[in-house]
Amino acid sequence: MKHKIHGRDEVWIYHPDDITHTLQNDNAIPVGGSTDLWSIHAYGQKKNFPFPLNASDESWRRTRMAIQKDIFPPQAAALYVPNLNEPAKRASKVFNKAPFDQLMPYTAFDLFANAILGKNFYSAEKSVDPNHQKDDSDLFVEHGMKALAEMIHLEIYMDNSHFPEFEKSMDTVIEYSEKFLLEASKKPDFAKGDSYFSRVVARKELEFKEIVSTVCSFLLAGVDTTTSLSLWILLNLGRFPEVQEKLYQEIASVVGDGPVTAKHIEQLQYMRQVLRESHRFTSNLAFTSARRLDHPIVLSGYEIPAGVKILFAPNAIQHDPRYVDEPEKFIPERWSKSAVAERTGTEREGIDGLVVSKPFGSGPRMCLGARLAEAEIRVFLCHLLRDWKFSWDPSVHKYQVIQNTFTLAAPFPEMKMMPR
Ligand code: HEM
Question: What is the domain-level CATH number for residue 68?
Answer without folding.
Answer: 1.10.630.10
